[in-house]
Amino acid sequence: MSAFTCFVRYPICKVFLLPKRTENILMYEFLADGLPISLSKHLSQTTLSSSFEDEEFRKLDLLNKGHQNQKGRQRGGVKTEILPPRYKRMTFDQHWNSVWPTAQSFKPSTVPLPLLQGYVKTGAPPNKFANTELMKIPNFLHLTPPTIEKHCAALKKFCTPWPKQLKTDEICDKEFPVEIITSDYCHSGPSIRDTRARIVTLKIKLSVLPLDYHAKDKLLRLVSDRYDPTNDVLSITVDRVPLRKQNYDYAYYLLTALFYESWKIEPWESEKSEADMEKYFWNGSRSQKAIVSTLRRMKETMPHEVLSSETDILAKREVECYGEAVSNIYNNGENSQTLQHYKDASCQLLNITKEKTA
Hints:
4-stranded antiparallel beta sheet
């Protein structure tokens, strides 16, 4: 007998569902104040015939497998035809961009190439079917030359013609002295991000910056090995912050800070003497004062010569050549070339005729 019981406080009711073969009767039993009262109600055959057709509970078939199996048996087990690989069904003039339009993993049934990848101790390497080595590595089958040409043709309408005034690289360097170098990386992986893409390199020639000797010397000391003297290019590479735009702004900030810092003159810099200088300077040196004094004494011995001022003496071409010769000896060292230059400048300054050798 199967039954379910409902419990309430007053009264207490028990409901019994009897099987069909016993009696189609729904029995109610009330316990009111401890006295059982039984009621019976006859139900129609049509109401309970569907519920109590069998004594056992029916199974709940959610997937309806029995019905599907009956249909499959009725069809007689129709087999589907297995098609050959796609590369065997493609024509000779197949448009490859339609077959492989974007970056994707390797598909052996699509690529019409007899590829081998892997290593085995004996025999040839495995072919392309079920080859995990070919599926692991990235491929660029979507970037074939015809596809790239098609992409360029599609982007051409968004491009503007190159300015006719910028004919040579020299003009471009003059009009656009700052060069920004960034890199984009394309690879297969779980993320399209690459930390190396944030790096920004700024390049500029120092000749385009308005710097005097003091500012240039201070700037070179600040940048250290970031300056290349062979091509006069200063390179600033920034990778401190996570975004490319932030590194771009920071690179321009560093260039601006270096420029204005190089023009600053500290109070202690005015206390430098000739011995403290990093190189020899002709202007203001003892050699310059000595040559001015010598030329004045030479003018005094000539009665018809008019004495010149120090500014006029230093403006003469002979004095400038002598100053360059002296500076070359101090800065570049003594060698046959610098000594010969010094000899010629001295003879020209003192108006000494060279002896002709046979």
